[in-house]
Amino acid sequence: SRVALFGGKDSCYNMMQCVAAGHQIVALANLRPAERQTDELDSYMYQTVGHQAIDLYADAMDLPLYRCFIKGTSVNTGRVYVTCEEDEVEDLYRLLKLVKEKERVEGVSVGAILSDYQRIRVEHVCRRLNLQPLAYLWRRNQEILLKEMISSNIQAIIIKVAALGLDPDEHLGKRLDQMEPLLLELSEKYGVHVCGEGGEYETFTLDCPLFKKKIVVDSSEVVLHSADAFAPVAYLRFLKLHLENKASRLQISYSINTNHISNSL
């Protein structure tokens, strides 16, 4: 049995790869900003934008969700991580320790693609807890990965932009399939990481084949985090969301060019 560290498209797609490899996802885990903190933490480790909606994932997948507050900061930023009580990595340790005690999990699904910083620290935590890290996306070609995510019916939207060529008013809330041509173009022009591994953008998953229900955004607002003239940093704050039952899993999927997409297995 496995626990999935959950949030954006990468963690969702890695979870799908875990299931395809025969692993069973028994719980979800997520770290969120401490109360009274901003939605967007300048964390080296964690995606925090969109944290208000994470609770819906538990209902969408019919799985228990374990959450802890991020109390630490990026204290130990060296290439080799050494345990430091004030570091945010220890928040992950406490979260996964709790999940292991409650659910008796043996492994952790991790959506890391390129970040050695994240990989080294997750592996450090897993070794201490005798858990197996499962990172099926590690070092894979990002253009191929993005195409696979789209073709696998992962319905993820852009909830943060922080790169040259990405405009908050134009691109926040757009689906991956709508953004793919631009992301490929920005990769050619400016070296933007197609899957956002350089922090260029972050996503929130609304639906995927593992969901029993889909998440619908009723209302949201754009929050400007940094008004840089060339690469403004902004994110979506969800104001109201709800879950909807999905169409029959036997139903054939619509074209990805339509606005409403149903998943089929």
UniProtKB/TrEMBL annotation:
It catalyses: diphthine-[translation elongation factor 2] + NH4(+) + ATP = diphthamide-[translation elongation factor 2] + AMP + diphosphate + H(+). Pfam families: Diphthami_syn_2. Keywords: ATP-binding, Ligase, Nucleotide-binding. CDD domains: AANH_PF0828-like (cd01994). Its EC number is 6.3.1.14. The keyword Ion transport does not apply. GO terms for biological process: protein histidyl modification to diphthamide. Residues 5-230 form the Diphthamide synthase domain. GO terms for molecular function: ATP binding; diphthine-ammonia ligase activity. Pathway: Protein modification; peptidyl-diphthamide biosynthesis. Amidase that catalyzes the last step of diphthamide biosynthesis using ammonium and ATP. Belongs to the Diphthine--ammonia ligase family. This is Diphthine--ammonia ligase. It comes from Nothoprocta perdicaria. The lineage of its organism: Eukaryota, Metazoa, Chordata, Craniata, Vertebrata.
